[in-house]
From TrEMBL:
This is Interleukin-22. It comes from the Eukaryota. Residues 1-32 form the signal peptide. GO terms for cellular component: extracellular region. The lineage of its organism: Eukaryota, Metazoa, Chordata, Craniata, Vertebrata. Keywords: Signal. InterPro entries: 4_helix_cytokine-like_core, IL-22. Gene3D superfamilies: 1.20.1250.10. Transmembrane segments: none annotated. It comes from Gulo gulo. It holds the Pfam family IL22.
């Protein structure tokens, strides 16, 4: 009798365990996990001494030409009110803008660094192409829009400033995406 009781209990436990597993699999497959998982870059992307040096050299050259010290594009304000888990997506948007609206129009300047850094950043941008978030991203878009507006308002000086902050962009991408 005791033995029968035991076997009933264990098969009940087995069924419970199986359904817990099913629920766990279902939650994992159906919810946000795959979406955010594309918002990732590899540690090794940021551990290449040569291209890191070129990126910082490019930023250094441009910041010499940037005489507006009052404005900071990549700083605390950019992340204000944005969840840590959404920082990589936010930086993806900033990177996209920087490539298309800053580096492309200035691509003839700051050689030879520019011609080496643009393909590197383009590669990172491509890696993040599937990075989406499932939450409402209005807040993120507003912060990104502020950055865009600041650059546009300053015109060419704004583009130079953004290039001068490529070192900050590099570090912010690293912090947000790995
Ligand atoms: C980059 O490398 C050069 C030598 O190739 C060196 O003079 C320079 O200080 C380095 N710059 C940075 C920011 O690492
Ligand atoms: C910054 O320098 C540019 C020339 O490189 C000049 O046109 C502009 O007026 C300067 N801005 C300020 C705020 O000094
Ligand atoms: C920027 O984003 C747009 C829209 O998602 C995309 O079509 C474009 O390829 C992106 N550009 C870069 C340089 O990643």
């Amino acid at each position: 009798m005791a033995a029968l009781q035991k076997s009933v209990n264990s098969s009940l436990l087995g069924a419970l365990a199986a359904s817990c597993l099913l629920i766990a699999l279902w939650v994992q497959g159906g919810a946000a996990v795959p979406i955010g998982s594309h918002c990732r870059l590899a540690n090794s992307d940021f551990e290449q001494p040569y291209i890191t040096n070129r990126t910082f050299m490019l930023a250094g050259e441009a910041s010499l030409a940037d005489n507006n010290t009052d404005v900071r594009l990549i700083g605390d304000t950019l992340f204000h009110g944005v969840n840590k888990g959404d920082h990589c997506y936010l930086m993806k948007e900033v990177l996209n803008f920087t490539l298309e609206e800053v580096l492309l129009p200035q691509s003839h300047r700051f050689q030879p660094y520019m011609q080496e850094v643009v393909p590197f950043l383009t590669k990172l941008s491509n890696r993040l192409s599937q990075c989406q978030i499932d939450s409402d991203d209005q807040h993120i878009q507003r912060n990104v829009q502020n950055l865009k507006d600041t650059v546009k308002k300053l015109g060419e000086d704004g583009e130079i400033k953004a290039i001068g902050e490529l070192n900050l962009l590099f570090m912010a991408l690293r912090d947000a995406c790995i």
